[in-house]
Amino acid sequence: MLDVSMYIDGEWKWRSAKGDNTRNIFNPATGEVIATAAEGNEDDAQAAITAARKAFDSGPWPDMGVDKRAEYLFKIADNMEEKQQALTQLETMNNGKTFPEASYDVSDAAACFRYYGELIKKSSDQTIDVPDPMQSIITHEPIGVCGLIVPWNFPLLISAWKLAPALAAGNTVILKPAEITPLTAIKLFEIFDAVGLPNGVANLVLGAGDTVGNKLATDHEVDKISFTGGTETGRHIMRAAAGNIKDVSLELGGKSPNIIFADADFETAVDYALYGTFFGAGQVCTAGSRILVEESIHDLFIERLVNRAKNIKVKPGNQTGAEMGPLVSEDHFNNVMSYIEAGQQEGATLRCGGKRLLSPDLENGFFVEPTIFTDVKEDMKIVQEEIFGPVAVVQTFKDEQEAIRLANGTDYGLAGSVFTTDDKKAMRVIKKVRAGITWINAYHAAYNEAPWGGYKQSGIGRGLGTYGLEEFQEVKQINVNLQVEPVNWFSE
Ligand code: NDP
Predict the structure, then answer these.
(1) 0.70 exceeded by the pTM?
(2) Residues 213, 217, 218, 223, CA torsion sign
(3) What parts of the chain have a pLDDT lower than 70?
(4) Hey, whose CA ends up nearest to atom 38 of ligand 1?
(5) Spatial contact of 113 and 73, defined as CB atoms under 8 Å apart
(6) DSSP H or E run through 236
(7) For ligand 1, is residue 256 a contact (CB within 6 Å)?
(8) 209, CA 20 to 30 Å: which among 54, 226, 331, 431?
């Protein structure tokens, strides 16, 4: 059993600033308590903000040469890779995802630190041509104290996606993991401690969103909030951040369309439709949870899709051959089940799944069968709202125009894909899909180098790539007069 502490101003804090509340951390595959975490509150968030403010205003980090900052990031990446196996096991134990999924997250998170270490060394400052005798320089500076609020579906990876660019740019940070999945974040902060990040540069506060998270979003000493999570919480954070006009980046929910044309490579399209929907038990913001199939292949496609979905091996993530793990918590499980019920009540046809898995080895975990609905209507709750579980809805379309209209028919705009062997059609259609992350004849591929984020109510700003670094930078113009003499605008 682990005891999990906070990390504030370079010190581990088991007791919170007021009281010593703790929270049990569960394994969602077994329902067992696997750790006890310190439960932070507003006072702990305040202590972390004060430490981060001091480290930014008077510490070495923002002014440190980029080569030196990059060295820290490379050491963090090396250290993560050395601990690959332990981090993978911990992520599976706390989040429920399968070993291959967790292992990928760890490698990708380490690669993210390495990528931003390299990127920050390449100066993006510019000199602009302006009339003599002036010279204009465009330079990039850190924003200041950044609050990083992350969800439970990719606890380590999304933390890395925010921490690596924020630290590379010279900011100081406060990370707030989701209260139910703090374990790999703690290990990451042990690595920060081991590589000797200066005190106050990176702080970790545990606790609930409506106390600790809200404090970060409202506090005037915090200059930026980078948030990933649900759209409703994103809306709340925007309002909370208005007090000091904080810089806000939001990566929110999705209900992403996966458009399958009749001329697609059939087996590839079926395979990716499964992968798009059921990877991570569907607890993925970009999940291709709306499968749009051209009418002429609909029945054949559904038959094959349902057969393959029924074969998905749903097991605890640490078991050999597990292809899909449990949902992350009992609350979330109840939420997903309520959507499945709503779908049936609204009159959609349940083609497979829909039930909790209750065999003796699974009954204490939150396992749900891969679930597919057909005969859905556009205005149904299960078509419009993010379910965030292993539930796909299949819509049909007659032609390109209808496919595009349906694809864009929700408030979300995070991701989307098109399957066809007609290259021109693929480009024509994908350009019309109002989403920030798209694929042609593929799904879910993500790269540290490529911008990540959504249109519409799926968010503001972009993580990853050069765009992800810019989200943590201010841009300044420095105009230099090369001929020092009075301007004489006003007469003597
Ligand atoms: P939330 O949006 O509530 O949680 C994400 C993070 O925000 C967590 O760290 C949470 O803290 C924190 N948070 C919650 N409330 C506040 C607040 N008032 N101020 C600041 N921070 C806050 O997601 P849920 O876990 O409740 O999931 C709800 C739905 O959101 C899911 O069903 C799914 O549809 C969507 N979602 C989308 C994700 C994505 O990747 N886009 C990721 C997760 C969820 P804590 O949990 O500790 O209270």
Answers:
(1) yes
(2) positive
(3) 15-19
(4) 229
(5) yes
(6) helix 231-240
(7) no
(8) 54
